[in-house]
Design a protein that fits this description.
By secondary structure, the chain is of the alpha+beta class. The chain folds into 2 domains: about 5-80, no CATH class; about 85-165, no CATH class. The protein contains 6 helices and 6 strands. The chain has helices at about 10-20, 45-50, 50-65, 95-105, 120-130, 130-150; strands at about 30-35, 40-45, 65-70, 75-80, 110-115, 155. The strands form 2 sheets. The protein has a 4-stranded antiparallel sheet with strand order 1-2-4-3. The protein has a two-stranded parallel ribbon with strand order 5-6. Helix 4 runs parallel beside helix 6 and helix 5 (about 120-130) packs antiparallel against helix 6.
Amino acid sequence: MTGMQASALNRYRRELRDMLNVLNVRRPAVVRRSMRDSFLYATDLPQAADPADTRKFIENILHSGWKVETDKGWIHLDPPGIQSWPDPDMKFPENPESECCLSILRRHPDGTAASAGTTERKLIKAAEEGPEAYARACAQIHAEWAEVLREHRKLPDIDPKFLGG
């Protein structure tokens, strides 16, 4: 396995798996990275379980502080506190693009605003996918931040650990 794939079961995936494993399902529910920027994961539980079990799962995960949205047979999920997340079990690989992002953050320590979590989600998803995807995500973020700085806006205040720092 390469990169993050070896440790893809970060603490949030483990928490999701634990909640899903106690349900009576027709087949194991799929958990994947959400295609939405504002959610980290998605599951097809509504297709794998009875409606009562799906409702029970949603109630339990909402009680645990997760954000939930359902759409076309999928449940999109976002864990609480993602901005301060860096899971110690998950390593974010250093690469030239992540180093550039770290350099930008270090050069603008007072020019940050509260993060909405979008950057953190993008980095977690890419790191789970592998080193190449993570490098591409860092390059994209680097370009986005360059535009933010040109427009004299504030960078998101993210934990440098998301960038390997």
